[in-house]
Specification:
Residues 61-70, 79-90 have a biased composition (Basic and acidic residues). The chain is mostly helical and 99 residues long. The protein is built from 2 helices and no strands.
C-alpha cells in the first residue's frame, strides 16, 4: 500500500513537472515571446486609455465646478483693487541667505 501511494505521488509530480517544463519551453519560442509581448502591449494600451478617460472626466468635472463658481456666485464675487506703488518708498530687494 505504501509503495502504491509513493508510486502515485511520483506519477503526479512527474506530470506536474512535465507540464511546467512544456509551458516554459513554449514561452521561450519566438511565437510564445511574441504572444507575451502582445499581451503586455494590450494591457499597457488599456491602462493608458483608462488613465486618459479618468483625466478627461476629472477635467470635465473641474470645468463644471469652475463654470458654476463663475456663473452662480455673482453676489459673492470678490472685488479686487489695484494697489499702486508708492513712488516715495524705496524699492525693496530680497535678502540673500546668510546676510
Amino acid at each position: 500500500m505504501r509503495r502504491l501511494f509513493w508510486f502515485g505521488a511520483g506519477v503526479a509530480a512527474g506530470v506536474a513537472v512535465t507540464r511546467k517544463v512544456s509551458e516554459t519551453t513554449r514561452k521561450a519560442t519566438p511565437a510564445g515571446m511574441a504572444e507575451q509581448l502582445g499581451g503586455a502591449m494590450r494591457e499597457l494600451a488599456g491602462a493608458v486609455g483608462s488613465f486618459g478617460a479618468e483625466v478627461r472626466a476629472g477635467m470635465q468635472e473641474r470645468e463644471e465646478e469652475l463654470h458654476d463658481a463663475v456663473d452662480g456666485s455673482s453676489a459673492d464675487t470678490v472685488q479686487f483693487r489695484r494697489i499702486e506703488a508708492d513712488d516715495r518708498a524705496p524699492a525693496r530687494r530680497a535678502r540673500r541667505a546668510g546676510r
